[in-house]
Amino acid sequence: AQSVTQLDSHVSVSEGTPVLLRCNYSSSYSPSLFWYVQHPNKGLQLLLKYTSAATLVKGINGFEAEFKKSETSFHLTKPSAHMSDAAEYFCVVSVFRGYNKLIFGAGTRLAVHP
Amino acid sequence: EAQVTQNPRYLITVTGKKLTVTCSQNMNHEYMSWYRQDPGLGLRQIYYSMNVEVTDKGDVPEGYKVSRKEKRNFPLILESPSPNQTSLYFCASSKLAGKQETQYFGPGTRLLVL
Q1: Once rounded to an integer, what is the mean pLDDT over residues B94-106?
Q2: CB-based contact, A48 to chain B, within 8 Å
Q3: Does A22 touch chain B (CB under 8 A)?
Q4: Where does the pLDDT of residue A74 fall: very low under 50, low under 70, confident under 90, or very high at 90 and above?
Q5: What is each CA distance from B6 to A15, A24, B64, B91, in whole angstroms?
Q6: What is the tens place of the pLDDT at every residue in A79-103?
Q7: I want to staple B68 with a disulfide (CB 3.0 to 4.6 A). Which of A66, A96, B49, B112 is the partner?
Q8: pLDDT tens-digit map of B17-70
């Protein structure tokens, strides 16, 4: 069965310091993996996605993620946090079961302090 | 502007009073889907639609109905809402139903059932 585990429900960083949001997945098949961000009172916006091409994926706003098959991980990183990065982040596995099924992690809330 | 729109954005209702949440996309996408978001659970799929007149249940379909009479619209119907349907609802669409497809999300509808 496919599943997604976001290892931290809350992460707090200072502005200008690195961000690491951790995600482990379980999938019987070669997955597609996504990170979405949700700002307060907003919809979900795609940050980046992995679809079996390069294992290091670059996204918007300086975020990137590395697909590590041996560790079944897809951690999201950013070298330097900005106040505007404060939001909730979702790691998502996409599988095809005759239709496009997204399996969401529970989310990680990122707080950025001055 | 390419987008997914939902209406209303906020809704307070009482138990048993039928309601409809509309969803519309202007990207000529074939695949549309409804999710609900609850704290600590991420997003869970309610219903999805592969194309006009083709709909099927997701993971949590109880208490909901959908229809897809036109390609651009995918309304969510609660025939007899109950308090456990209080949640944040998202509509999403993608061009096709493949696992590599990016789903685009609407801004969300926050529903409170008293």
Answers
A1: 86
A2: no
A3: no
A4: very high
A5: 34, 32, 16, 7
A6: 999 999 999 999 999 877 767 778 8
A7: B49
A8: 999 999 999 999 999 999 999 988 889 999 999 999 999 999 999 999 999 999
CB contact A35 to B (< 8 Å)? no
Q: Which long-range contacts (CB under 8 A, 24 or more apart) does B98-101 make?
A: B98/A96, B98/A100, B99/A31, B99/A32, B99/A94, B99/A95, B99/A96, B99/A100, B99/A101, B100/A32, B100/A49, B100/A51, B100/A94, B101/A94, B101/A100, B101/B31
CB-closest option in A42, A90, A100 to B99:
A100
A101 touches chain B (CB under 8 A): yes
As a whole number, mean pLDDT of residues B58-84 equals 96
Determine whether the interchain pair B100/A49 forms a contact, defined as Cβ–Cβ distance below 8 Å: yes
Q: Which residue on chain B is closest to A52 by alpha carbon?
A: B100
**Phi, psi (deg, nearest 5) at residue A16:** 90, -10
The mean of the pLDDT values for chain B is: 94
* Best to test chain B binding among A4, A36, A44, A91 (most B CBs inside 10 Å): A44
Task: Mark yes or no for CB contact B99/A36 under 8 Å.
Answer: no
Strands B10-13 and B109-113: parallel
| Beta-ladder partners of A21 | A76
Look at the block and give the residue holding tokens 């976001």: A6
